[in-house]
Amino acid sequence: MIPNTKRFVIAGVFVAGAFGLASCADVLYPPVKWESKALPEAQGKVEIKDGKPQHVRYKEGPFSGVRPDFSQYRSQAYDDHRPEPAIRKVAMPKDLKGNAAEGRKIYMNRGLGPCTGCHLIRGDDVWPAGNIGPDHQKLGDAGYSDDELYQMIYDIRAVYPESIMPPWGSAGILTPQQIVHVVEFLKTQKGDLPPEKDPQRDPNTRAKPVGFGDPLDPTNNPALLAAESAEKDWARKGPKGKACADCHQGGVEKAMKGVATRYPRYVGEYRRIMAMEDFLQSHSPATTGIDMPSQSNINLNMSMLVKLQSNGMPLNLDLASLESRAALARGKATFHKRSGQRNHACADCHLEEPGKGGNKFLGGRLLATLDSGMMNHFPLWRTNFTKVWDPRKRFQWCMTPLGMNYLAADSVEYAELEFYLSSFGQGKPLTAPGIRH
C-alpha cells in the first residue's frame, strides 16, 4: 500500500501531468458517501407509484409545475456514468409537410422550449426573447436547405459539435413532424426588417437590470426579517440542554464575525466539503439536539443570521489544501458536465465566451457570469416566489427545466459545485442575504 504522500508524487508524474490536478486529487480524496438529512422533498428521491417512477419534488412553485420523471437522462451524480446522447445524423422525412403557422406556435411554446429563450424572431408578441443563440429574424435569407435546417434542429452537434443548443430530435423533445413545421416557419424569416417599435423587445438593445435596491434594508428585503427571527433559535436550549449561545459566547455579532467568510470548507469530522447550511444541519442536532435539516426555515434563517455578521468582509476560502483542491476539481467537472434531457452544462449558461450564455439574456433573464461572485449573496430573497432560496435550491431548479432529476440539497456533488463557484468570489465581499427575481 503506497502512503498518501508518495502516492501523490507518483500520480503527479504521470497522471496529473497528462490529465491535470483533478486526476491525482480524485485518487487521493474520493468523495464520501453521504446519506441525505434534508427535508424529504429536498432529497431528490425517486418513488414508484402506480408502477411508474416518480421524482419527489417540492410541492410549491415553480417545482410543482414539472410533472415528468427524468430518471432516463443522466444527472450530475458522481456515480452516474452514462454518456451523453449519441449524435444522430438524419435526413428530413420526405413524406411530411410543414406548416409555418404551426411551426411558429411550436417555436414559441414555453412547454417545449421556447426557442425564443435563446433566439429572436419577428413579431411584436415575441417577448421576452434571449440572445444566447443567433438572431433568427433573417434566417430564411441565409441559404440553408430544408435538410440542413432539419438536421440543425434535430441534432445540431452533427453540424456544430460545440453548440450548446439541445438536440431536440435526438432527445425526443420534438417529433419529426414538429421539426418539419419549425423548418417551414424559419424559411419565412426573411426580407427587410420592419422598424423596431420597442428596443426592449430586442435583447441586444434591451437595458440590463440594475438590481433591487439595498439588500440590507428590511423594508426592501424580507429575508432580513427572517434572519433576525433566528436570534430566538440562537438563544433557545435544545433537548441536549444547550443553545448555540452557550458555546459561542459574546452574542451572535461577536461570536460569528468573519465565520461565514470561510465557507464552504472541508470539515474533517464529516470528511467532506460543507457550506454553512450543510454544517448547521449536522452540527446543531449533534450539539444542541435541535434539528436544522437542509431547506427548512430554521436552517435557512440561521444561515442568514450567521452570514449577516460577516457582511462586507471578503470571502477567504481555503483553496490550497489537497482536500480543497480535489473538491474544486470535482466541482469544476460537474460545472462542465452535460446532463439531462436537454444535454446542458452549467458552463453553457455561465461562461462569458463565444457560444456561451454568460452576460446574455435567457428569455428576459440576464445570466450571471462565473467570475461575478455569484455565490456571495446567497441565501437570497426570490421576489417572484416570495421565499428565501439558498444555492442548493437554485441548483435544483436550474436542473429541473433542463429535464434532469435534481440531487439531494445536501449532496456532496452540490457542495463541491458550490465550492467551485464560490472560489470565483474569493476576495469579494459577502452581501447576504441578497435579492433576486
How would you describe this protein?
This protein has 437 residues and is mostly helical. The protein has two domains: 266 residues, Cytochrome Bc1 Complex, Chain D, domain 2; 123 residues, Cytochrome Bc1 Complex, Chain D, domain 2, CATH 1.10.760.10. 32% of the residues lie in helices and 6% in strands. It has a three-stranded mixed β-sheet with strand order 8-7-9. A two-stranded antiparallel ribbon has the order 1-2. Strand 5 and strand 6 form a beta hairpin. Helix 7 crosses helix 12. The longest helix is centred in the C-terminal third of the chain and has 15 residues. It is elongated.
Taken in chain order, the helices and strands follow as: HHHEEHHHHHHHEEHHHHEEEEHHE
Question: What is the alpha-carbon Rg in Å?
Answer: 24 Å
CATH superfamily of the largest domain: Cytochrome c-like domain
Strand content: 5-15%
CATH architecture of the largest domain: Orthogonal Bundle
How many beta-strand segments?
9
Oligomeric state: single chain
Instruction: Give the CATH topology of the largest domain.
Output: Cytochrome Bc1 Complex, Chain D, domain 2
CATH class of the largest domain: Mainly Alpha
Q: Please summarize the sheet with the most strands.
A: 3 strands, mixed
> How many individual domains?
2
Low-confidence stretches: 1-25
Number of helices: 16
Global mean pLDDT: 92
Give me the side-by-side strand order of the main sheet.
8-7-9
Q: Which structural category do the helix and sheet elements fall into?
A: mainly alpha
Helix content: 25-40%
**Cα end-to-end separation:** 53 Å
Shape: elongated
